[in-house]
Amino acid sequence: MKKISQRALDIEMSGIRKFFQAAKPDSINMTLGQPDFDTPEHVKNAAIQAIHEGKTGYTFNAGLPELREAISEKFERENSLNYNPDQIIVTAGAGEALFIAMQSLVDSGDRVLLTNPGFVSYEACIRLAEGKPDYIPLTNDLHINQEILQEKISGARLLILNSPNNPTGAVESPENIRAIVETAMDAGVTVLSDEVYEHIIYDAVHKSAGTYGDDIITVNAASKTYAMTGWRLGYLAGPDEYMEQCLKVHQYCQTCATSISQYAGLAAYTGDQSCVKTMQDEYKARRDILVSGLKEMGVKFPVPEGAFYVFAPLGKEITSKIMDAGVIIVPGDAFGDAGAEYARFSYATSRQNIYAAIERMKPVFGED
Ligand SMILES: Cc1ncc(COP(=O)(O)O)c(C=O)c1O
């Protein structure tokens, strides 16, 4: 028997890939959490230029100074947050940012609050830091409730906040973000705010948690905003004391984010932002098609205000009938046991696919 660390044994492979891989060639795949758009042309060209100019060596561990400056300006412009470039670390996607934040802030046995259901990586990152995940149940409309939070907050080390949310598509209102952050700050609990879907938002307002408190780490990425998931470019920003420690962990696990991706990111953050709006408009149109299709079939669910997911309480039987009909979705227990009666549809796929999926689902709901 090979000896395996308890840390590794304590985590499992994400349940999402399993369903993605279960898709047959004629299935309509609504499992994936990534934009189906191509990376904008000017961003790709910046990377190609960087290659031709030989900008292919290591960069500073924390990232290119000009990129950190651009991200600092982005925080100011879009979020009204003041992070100086020294408080920003460029990472291999938001995934690495979450990992190094948890490694740097959480000690063995520390309690970390996260929602159930929630994004799959959080629990694994907590466990790999030997922290103790403590789950906050959501309300029926898939939001964080202040009273439930109040009951849990005392003595926790960290609270993970994710708005707009994966898997629910819920966006916490500015008032709720403020109340959540104030509750955490009053209890001396650090907030780790994952804002990767900030620009995939409809009829709602995104407020950064950092607006309302100081003991906050903001995590973000180019991945969803600029359709750059494969480039692996993200970042985290926070108080100097935290960033000094995060930089050490980052240095030893990653050295630096890919140089070429960083030049691409520089073009993304400093270039024309109209591509972001174009994608957002298309996601909104797709959301509307899926939401009205499901509603016409009698499915009841909270209409998502952000990200590119519908999280609907279909029950296990209907979920598996939908899969049998050739529409592959993710059963909600992949995101925590509280999601067991739900399923997640990703509408990061073409309108044509969404229309076809609705047609395939109609017989499941007794319509032809
Ligand atoms: C809420 C959330 N945070 C972080 C990530 C990871 O993003 P990245 O691809 O930048 O590592 C994802 C990816 O699906 C996500 O949904």
From TrEMBL:
<dbReference type="GO" id="GO:0008483">
    <property type="term" value="F:transaminase activity"/>
</dbReference>
<dbReference type="InterPro" id="IPR015422">
    <property type="entry name" value="PyrdxlP-dep_Trfase_small"/>
</dbReference>
<comment type="similarity">
    <text>Belongs to the class-I pyridoxal-phosphate-dependent aminotransferase family.</text>
</comment>
<feature type="domain" description="Aminotransferase class I/classII large">
    <location>
        <begin position="26"/>
        <end position="360"/>
    </location>
</feature>
<dbReference type="InterPro" id="IPR015421">
    <property type="entry name" value="PyrdxlP-dep_Trfase_major"/>
</dbReference>
<keyword id="KW-0032">Aminotransferase</keyword>
<protein>
    <submittedName>
        <fullName>Aspartate aminotransferase</fullName>
    </submittedName>
</protein>
<comment type="subunit">
    <text>Homodimer.</text>
</comment>
<keyword id="KW-0663">Pyridoxal phosphate</keyword>
<dbReference type="InterPro" id="IPR050596">
    <property type="entry name" value="AspAT/PAT-like"/>
</dbReference>
<dbReference type="Pfam" id="PF00155">
    <property type="entry name" value="Aminotran_1_2"/>
</dbReference>
<keyword id="KW-0808">Transferase</keyword>
<dbReference type="InterPro" id="IPR015424">
    <property type="entry name" value="PyrdxlP-dep_Trfase"/>
</dbReference>
<dbReference type="GO" id="GO:0006520">
    <property type="term" value="P:amino acid metabolic process"/>
</dbReference>
<dbReference type="InterPro" id="IPR004839">
    <property type="entry name" value="Aminotransferase_I/II_large"/>
</dbReference>
<dbReference type="GO" id="GO:0030170">
    <property type="term" value="F:pyridoxal phosphate binding"/>
</dbReference>
